Amino acid sequence: MEKVKSVEILIALAVVLSVLCISSAVPLQTCEAREIKELHIGYQPSTHQIAEMTAMEKGWWERDLKRFGIEKVTDIEFSSGPPEMTAMMGGALDIAYVGTAPPISAIDKGLDAKIVAAVQTNGSAIVLLPELAANYTSPENLKGLKIATFPPGSIQDTILKNWLKDNGIDPKDDLEIVPMGPRDAISAIAARAVDGVFLPSPSPTIIELEGAGKIVVLSGDMWPDHACCCLLASGELIREHPELLEQIIRTHINATEYNREHIDEAAEIFAKKVGWDMEKVKESFNRTDMKWIHNPHLEIPSTLEYAKVDYEMGYTDKLLRQDDLFDTSFYDRVTGIVPTPAPTPEVTPAPSPTPTAPPGFTTVLTVASLLVALYIILRRRF
Q1: Structural domain tally of the chain?
Q2: CB distance 185 to 149 below 8 Å
Q3: Are 117 and 250 in contact (CB under 8 A)?
Q4: Is pLDDT of 184 > 60?
Q5: Is 354 part of any domain?
Q6: When comparing pLDDT for 353 and 257, which is higher?
Q7: Domain check: are 67 and 206 in the same one?
Q8: Does residue 357 fall inside a structural domain?
Q9: Is the pLDDT of residue 357 over 70?
Q10: What is the percent of the chain with per-residue pLDDT over 90, rounded to a whole number?
Q11: Domain end point (choices 335, 354, 374)
Q12: Are 197 and 236 within one domain?
């Protein structure tokens, strides 16, 4: 009997504490978030994502995040976005530099994360074997070819297949599209195992400079000003560590602006990080339509178009909306962007409103009620 009484008391106390934890009126210290001492960042070997590499190389990540309890920052390279999202779904990453397309299918499958900042737009290109490039005049020339690009659900896969369909070409029947990471794709076209590739910079330039192929179409011509890479944050950071996430965005913005002003140094940082020839990386900046940005609002329109394309291609089970994919509130606070207020509809003047309860009143009332219930249980049992 005493055991039953003890269980009832514990249950009642658990209910009270649960209400305290979920109430915004109660200080967060009441139910502390999990302490994060090591931050894990995902990235890919592309000049699109040099902001992450610059912040890492210069020690800005650890310096800026130290006051939030971060003792170590670790970054992990992925060949493309889909495997990077698999790692994030497994809890291996806190933030990811990734194309805006891979999070769409991952979030559809249950990934708890949202896009909080932009990284860059455009920046990929179709490269064909030299003799095929010499005769290229339109997408029709791609029929019957074997083209390597990133896996299904990636930015490159989404843009390529959508562009082909817009030009009356069936991506499944009219040509062969082979999923590959950048290093494998570069080797494949050099070995003439594929007829062409569609890859992000600097890969197209490297292939061109090595004489293995020639750029025929830039991705900005296939989909003008399209969103490419973004900064994706875990739901845990968003909900439980908002100040830490704001600083992550500040550091990302600073690194992006620094790269814009120190383009040669950015190339050096990338070449050192990834292990590619520095002069070829520098030349890639002259042959790409890539633009480094950080404002997530600029990526929303085309990302929502990607969501539509992915839904139509069967990559997602539902059509995701802006609120499913983006949380711009952190960027807006960091940069001082104030959302435009919604227009106030004209209404007939109403009587003075009934006074509302002060903040926290509802919580206090709820907790008091639960305490009364606890008292009744104890009184009956004892």
Answers
A1: 3
A2: yes
A3: no
A4: yes
A5: no
A6: 257
A7: no
A8: no
A9: no
A10: 79
A11: 335
A12: no
Q: Is residue 138 domain-resident?
A: yes
Residues 193 and 324 in one domain: no
Distance CA 52, CA 131 (A): 37
Quick check: 344 pLDDT over 70? no
Mean pLDDT over each residue of the chain, to the nearest integer? 86
What letter would DSSP give residue 28?
G
Spatial CB neighbours of 124, under 8 Å, sequence gap ≥ 6: 155, 156, 159, 198, 199, 200, 201, 204, 218, 219, 228
Closest CA to 115 of 127, 126, 132, 102: 102
How far CA 314 is from CA of 91, 153, 223, 311, in Å, comes to 26, 10, 21, 5
Q: Which residue in 53, 340, 69 sits closest to 202, CA to CA? A: 53
Whether residues 162 and 304 share a domain: the answer is: no
Higher pLDDT, 351 or 251: 251
pLDDT higher than threshold 70 for residue 356: no
Query: What is the model's pLDDT at position 243?
Result: 97
Question: What residue type is assigned to position 185 of the chain?
Answer: A
Query: Span 14-43, mean pLDDT?
Result: 60
